[in-house]
Write the structure tokens for this entry.
Amino acid sequence: MGDRLDGRVAVVTGAASGIGEATVRRFVEEGARVVVADVQVDRGEAVAAALGDAARFVHCDVTSEDAVAAAIQLAVDTWGRLDVMFNNAGVVGAIGPIADTDAAAWTRSIDILLHSVFYGCKHAARVMVPQGSGSIISTSSAAGVMGGLGPHAYTTAKTAVIGLTKSVAAELGTKGVRCNAIAPGTIPTPLTAVVTTGDATDLEAVAASARERYGRAGDAIDIANAALYLASDEAAFVNGHTLVVDYGRTINGGSPRFASAEPKMVGIAGTDDQ
Ligand SMILES: NC(=O)c1ccc[n+]([C@@H]2O[C@H](COP(=O)([O-])OP(=O)(O)OC[C@H]3O[C@@H](n4cnc5c(N)ncnc54)[C@H](O)[C@@H]3O)[C@@H](O)[C@H]2O)c1
């Protein structure tokens, strides 16, 4: 237990599972009160119930602007303010070759992954700007930083989340409100498990694959800790930033062949300076 969010009020979307659930617990450990917003009622209610008076569940489909506004209003009605808005809900969305991508699945993916973030920023700003303070955080992805890591619609939406974050940060920074994004690498959650094995509960399959390829598997708590940092006053001078939390996945171009070469100096090509 700590006090890094003492007295703060947060709304977390996609809070019934994975990264959102871990973040709710982490925020409450640090003194926050949190609205747990999700479409999964049983799981969301269980997350909130385990935290007692510090959490309230609300059914919230983030593709509905009214539902996102209502989740924020619940925070204000219950605890009188909104200090942190974590736009985090997501799905993998449309997968497959671009030539075969169904337009309706594309639009649904963008609705869930991008329009939701716009609604969250918009309605958080309506409370935070008059308050003169607040931290908006949105979950992008390593797939929003480089191509080829995620499906087309997902990559597009997560890239756009970074753009929206910069744009909102530029506007709201002068009003005491910060807006940042987090770009996680692969984290074992139901979202990644279901695309890895078809079994949403098989988090270990995701973790084992990550350990083998990158040397370490991430955990939802790694992203929760990043969200805690951006939510807290420790990040008071951080605005418009995308915090990549991926154990170096997006800076690693492949096998580090020079690191495994025979050590020597390579000088001017084609000369004796070798
Ligand atoms: N797990 C990863 O490797 C990874 C990597 C990068 C980014 N992300 C992003 O992290 C976020 C959280 O994903 P996760 O990995 O914790 O997955 P998860 O499946 O554990 O959690 C996602 C949550 O979002 C909720 N959700 C989905 N659609 C919704 C809707 N329309 N309205 C409200 N809630 C909805 C789900 O019910 C679920 O509780 C997502 O935005 C995802 O794209 C995850």
